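Methods, example record. To illustrate the input and output format used throughout this study, we show the complete record for Tryptophan 2,3-dioxygenase. The sequence lines were provided to the predictor; the line carrying structure tokens was produced by it.
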Amino acid sequence: MTGNTRPIEASIRTDFRDEMDYGSYLGLDVLLSAQHPMSDPPHHDELLFIIQHQTTELWLKLVVHELLAVRRYLDADDLSRALKGLARVKHIQRTITEQWSVLATLTPSEYAEFRGSLGQSSGFQSHQYRAVEFLLGNKNAGMLQVFRDKPEVHAQLEQLLGEPTVYDAFLRLLARRGHEVPAGILDRDVTQAWTEHPELIAVFKTIYQDPHAYWELYEACEDLVDIEDAFQLWRFRHLRTVQRTIGFKTGTGGSSGASFLKRALDLTFFPELISVRTEIDGPLGA
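The corresponding predicted structure is encoded as:
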């Protein structure tokens, strides 16, 4: 090595006329040309806004991929593989939550200069975000109308609306392992949003009171709570970023903006896993 130069090792391939290279494998010609600022002339900070949302959509694509696999593993009684998938989802959630700190560098005056170029586009219209919510239990058939002009997306969400959630799959696994999950819950209408079932608390109390006897199930319960907490933190960071950027203005897609996002903080996926904590007295035999 001379100075601050590192020579290319002789074994490193440099001729890709007949071979696939890094850019080809990742489709970088498509990926890196997918940013199209709409402001005229293009505002410097619009690229940040576009990339922030595009990268989030890529991570959401992976979350959907992983949650579908988690549900399959639960259906197949492969809890260990399901737990691995949930662990990966938690890491993705941490990443997309931290991304808000990058967008938060966009000041109100900077955003105002190109916000009008967004038209009616809004994160509310993210079908992948809606798919994640459907998979975790926040079903809402009314949301499908947002995607009625996109037949393939509408069909995907309609299918998820009619399928069991990850939580449904977990409860069915509990039942197969001998826990007394009420039949009415196992046979519920899965197109409806999950609402708290107090009769489930006794099932979870059994697991939490004796974690060593039910370690994998106990771990799965805590992983689900982690995912709920991380999702709420993501929502909160979204709310705070919106507030510091546009205050309480109406959202670009017609929502009430920050007020709409604040109401989302009341939504919950696995309420019984929180409620059971009130009932835990200590380990059995203590």
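Annotations derived from this record:
The CA atoms of residues 90 and 272 lie 20 Å apart.
Residues 215-246 form the longest helix (32 residues).
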